[in-house]
From TrEMBL:
Entry keyword Hydrolase: yes
Record protein name field: MBL fold metallo-hydrolase
GO MF term list: 3'-tRNA processing endoribonuclease activity
Annotated ranges, domain Metallo-beta-lactamase: 18-200
Length: 251
């Protein structure tokens, strides 16, 4: 699998990165994991808007889903012709959330959004998209939020989504080649264990799960990337790096 970090800023876009969006490629199939605000523009440095085969949304906070409303415009009104209907996997109310964000009058009732997106509800369990085998599990967060274990070609990547401290994250990450883990908080500054992780906690989860590599993401502009990286290295004995915009990784 090839992972490209389209956006990795937490909570709101930073000066050098849009919000959460990750491009995964395997066997000619391209999927997006989250599509937060600002990400659609940056995506076009790495893929054409018509080349995406599916979108996975971990949850419906704006920094993880809002650019799907812009993507509706790009696919619906493309001058070369409307793009094919695109599968979108997300929580049960994804259709309503995106329609309201775009403010389409009657969008839910008249199905305009559904003309462009094939909304499919994510629940705890496993499904397949092309060569990707995807396992979803609920994580602790103020809204319905999922982590995804994504496997293809004998390799595995886990994306934490937004999560607090979670034994379930350890379980779904067990033995993964790469854990793409949020580290929104700073150790000693914020203490909301059911909302987000800090760098130290991300490292602890990775160590308990025995993952191959840890990639820290979803760090807000007001939080030190270097501090969280240093904290994660204190608790995880494997390789730790920062997710950086436009960087690619082979899994």
């Amino acid at each position: 699998m090839k992972l490209t970090v389209v956006g990795c800023s937490g909570s709101f876009p930073g000066p050098d990165s849009p919000c959460s969006c990750y491009l995964l490629e395997a066997d000619g199939v391209r999927i997006l994991v989250d599509l937060g605000n600002g990400a659609l523009g940056a995506l076009q440095r790495h893929a054409t808007l018509g080349s995406i085969d599916a979108v996975l949304l971990s949850h419906l906070h704006a920094d993880h889903c809002l650019d799907l409303a812009c993507y509706f415009v790009a696919r619906k009104y493309c001058p070369a012709g409307e793009l094919p209907r695109l599968a979108v996997y997300g929580p049960a109310d994804t259709h309503e959330r995106i329609a309201r964000a775009y403010d389409v009058e009657g969008a839910i009732d008249n199905g305009r959004m559904a003309e462009v997106f094939d909304f499919r509800t994510v629940v705890t369990g496993t499904f397949e998209v092309g060569p990707f085998r995807i396992t979803a599990d609920r994580m602790p967060h103020p809204v319905e939020s999922y982590a995804f274990r994504i496997e293809a070609g004998g390799r595995s990547l886990v994306y934490s989504g937004d999560t607090g401290v979670s034994d379930d994250l350890v379980r779904i990450s067990r033995g993964a080649d790469l854990l793409l883990c949020e580290a929104s908080f700073e150790h000693g500054r914020e203490d909301l264990p059911h909302v987000h992780l800090n760098g130290r906690q991300a490292g602890e989860h990775a160590e308990r799960a025995g993952v191959g590599r840890l990639l820290l993401t979803h760090i807000p502009p007001w939080t030190s990337r270097e501090r969280n990286l240093d904290d994660a290295r204190k608790t995880f004995t494997g390789a730790v790096d920062l997710a950086l915009p436009d960087a690619s990784h082979t899994v």
